[in-house]
Amino acid sequence: MAEAMISGIVEAELIPAEQIIATNKSNEERLQQLRNKYGIRAMKREELDFSSVDFFILAMKPKDIDEALSSIKDKVTKEQVILSVLAGIPTSYMEENLNEDQQVIRVMPNTSSMLRESATALSPGKHTSMDKVILAKKLLACIGEVYVIEEDKMDIFTGIAGSGPAYFYYLMEHIEKTAKEAGLDEETARQIGSQTILGAAKMMMEQDDTPADLRKKVTSPNGTTAAGLAALEKHGGGEAISEAIKGAAQRSEEISANLNKKIVTQ
Ligand SMILES: NC(=O)C1=CN([C@@H]2O[C@H](COP(=O)(O)OP(=O)(O)OC[C@H]3O[C@@H](n4cnc5c(N)ncnc54)[C@H](O)[C@@H]3O)[C@@H](O)[C@H]2O)C=CC1
Ligand SMILES: O=C(O)[C@@H]1CCC=N1
């Protein structure tokens, strides 16, 4: 996820690449790759001059949050902002485990950040100034659209947008499989499927019609779409989509609930 964000931020040219610094736990080879590919600076955590940083973006797995927070706690000041993209980690947890009054922002991007097409949510913590929220929003706008949401909506947002790209990739895998069975080659099927998804997404974004209106316009009485939709419904298509979103949102809630019990496993 961190690389997708780096890619989008560098591409946007809002800040010079050399002002972006990446660190990881110990993988020097990975840091070298990031340096070469994006022209950013990348260094071991021990080499980082904390005082030179305005925004820290935490992008480790949720299970590594405690170690990460304790390793930065005594090095960050109140003026600096800690952004976290970790699923299920509430701002209150970061505040409790950092210094009093620390400015924190919970963020949920998705991997389309790579192409500056993320749908990203942010929720500020209780000590975060409006100036910093505006700055964070500007930074995140480099990777796509940004939505400031109430933190209690972050789990459902994660279910829709953070995890969402995977549902479309899964859909595409099935489109390809079915097309292949009917004799189309995979590459052609991928292009046709992707263009169809892109066209439908643009219609929803650029037309005033609701998705239901748009669906009805495709569906001729007793035609092919009606047959396709009937099969989708018969096989639980609509319910499957709802359950996927709810499943991801519940997992996000579960990560939060397990934090205080210290049993985060992801
Ligand atoms: N993959 C995705 O589509 C999305 C992921 N996220 C969140 O992003 C986070 C990372 O996910 P991935 O990129 O998929 O995982 P990943 O395992 O590929 O990357 C995690 C990185 O964090 C590094 N790391 C661990 N502890 C560290 C520390 N204390 N200091 C510096 N670096 C440290 C690891 O070396 C590793 O490079 C997760 O918390 C996830 O919830 C959020 C939105 C979307
Ligand atoms: O699967 C995950 O937990 C992360 C968070 C959202 C997308 N990927």
Automatic annotation (TrEMBL):
It is found in: Cytoplasm. SUPFAM superfamilies: 6-phosphogluconate dehydrogenase C-terminal domain-like (SSF48179), NAD(P)-binding Rossmann-fold domains (SSF51735). Residues 1-88 form the Pyrroline-5-carboxylate reductase catalytic N-terminal domain. NADP(+) binds at residues 59-62. It comes from the Bacteria. Gene3D superfamilies: NAD(P)-binding Rossmann-like Domain (3.40.50.720), ProC C-terminal domain-like (1.10.3730.10). Residues 151-254 form the Pyrroline-5-carboxylate reductase dimerisation domain. Pathway: Amino-acid biosynthesis; L-proline biosynthesis; L-proline from L-glutamate 5-semialdehyde: step 1/1. It catalyses: L-proline + NADP(+) = (S)-1-pyrroline-5-carboxylate + NADPH + 2 H(+); L-proline + NAD(+) = (S)-1-pyrroline-5-carboxylate + NADH + 2 H(+). InterPro entries: 6-PGluconate_DH-like_C_sf, NAD(P)-bd_dom_sf, P5C_Rdtase_cat_N, P5CR-like_CS, P5CR_dimer, Pyrroline-COOH_reductase. The keyword Amino-acid biosynthesis applies. It holds the Pfam family P5CR_dimer. Its EC number is 1.5.1.2. GO terms for cellular component: cytoplasm. The keyword Amino-acid biosynthesis applies. GO terms for biological process: L-proline biosynthetic process. One of its GO terms (molecular function) is pyrroline-5-carboxylate reductase activity. Keywords: Amino-acid biosynthesis, Cytoplasm, NADP, Oxidoreductase, Proline biosynthesis. Belongs to the pyrroline-5-carboxylate reductase family. Catalyzes the reduction of 1-pyrroline-5-carboxylate (PCA) to L-proline. PANTHER family: PYRROLINE-5-CARBOXYLATE REDUCTASE, PYRROLINE-5-CARBOXYLATE REDUCTASE 1. This is Pyrroline-5-carboxylate reductase. It comes from Priestia filamentosa. The gene is proC.
